[in-house]
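sanity check this record:

:::
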Amino acid sequence: MDFLKKEELAEKLKDLEEQGFDKIHLPGGSSWDNSFCSSVIIPVYHHESKDVYFVGVPYNSSYEQSNGNNKKANETPEETALREVMEETGIRGYASDLIFLKNSSHSVPDRFDTSKTHYKNYFLLKTFTGIIFDFEGANHIDPGVAAPLLFPSRYFKEILFKNHQIALKEAVDVLMGEHIDYCYALMNLNR
């Protein structure tokens, strides 16, 4: 996966938008029964530029999601998060590597049945293995998304889907408190 400059990413996003991928989301998705979703913030520290890049997934908001695809019954939010990250990005993480972002996670009325609640879980995944997917067009596992991209932190904050912004802010606070490299790279991002 390449660490592209903002201009190169903007050009790539223009091409993806022509294909129907109109938003950038965090990797993740909903449970089998749609009672919750799990989204994951994945930072990558770039030693040369001393910037933090984040994994973003181009998302087609007009794609009709079906409950069937690869969802598994009775998954925990952590299991859903890790499965979805693997399917959408090629990245493999482990439950012990997930940091639950409790201040960002919240419940909302279910969009299909307002008498039910849908819980939004957010996680930070700092340690992982695997090779980030790099393909053209729609993902064969989940056609509602395209191959993930690495975005420099400031650009990621500009283009990330607005409902995911609160989780990004919390993740940045966690990262800044854990390592000096993250602190310097992200110090002005939450202003």
